[in-house]
Design goal:
With 151 residues, the chain is an alpha+beta fold. It has 7 helices and 6 strands, in the order H-H-E-E-H-H-H-E-E-E-E-H-H. Helix 5 packs across helix 7.
């Protein structure tokens, strides 16, 4: 009986930890299946491959190469997009989660930010026109509550 109780507690603890952050996985993968390492290492982000994928905190990431997959595994927090891969502007300015266009991004202060974009406009433009430092600070505050809410 004691063994079953211990196993049950471990499972509950693991489940809670694995789901501590909700990631934007609209297309089944974080960053719409783009290789999150490539944002930092290439001139433009690359589409990941199903041959090179891993799971981190319950979300699946794809990579363009084995090398990028290994880089990610060594330090995943360096590469994961801020705010679970939801639109950084929406999290900061509107306190809400919004899907992104994975081609609309910015690396700022060593962090990856993704943005919503459509033919109506690109939230990256708004992010850069406004006080970006203030938006980052507000986004970090807002994300503390938003990251646990299902979209």
């Amino acid at each position: 009986m004691r063994l079953l109780s211990t196993i049950f507690l471990i499972i509950i603890s693991f489940s809670a930890k694995a789901q501590s952050t909700e990631f934007n996985i609209k297309k089944g993968y974080v960053a719409e299946g783009y290789d999150v390492v490539s944002y930092f290492t290439e001139k433009a982000p690359l589409i990941g491959s199903k041959k090179h994928q891993t799971t981190f905190e319950g979300a699946t990431f794809k990579f363009a190469s084995t090398m990028n997959l290994e880089l990610f595994k060594k330090n995943p927090k360096k590469y994961i997009p801020q705010y679970g891969g939801f639109c950084a502007y929406a999290v900061a300015a509107k306190n809400t989660k919004m899907d992104v266009d994975a081609d609309s991004y910015e690396i700022r202060d060593g962090k990856l930010y993704l943005f919503y974009s459509s033919w109506f406009g690109n939230k990256l433009d708004d992010w850069q026109k406004e006080d970006t430092k203030k938006l980052q600070q507000q986004g970090d505050i807002n994300w503390q509550d938003l990251k646990q809410k299902k979209n």
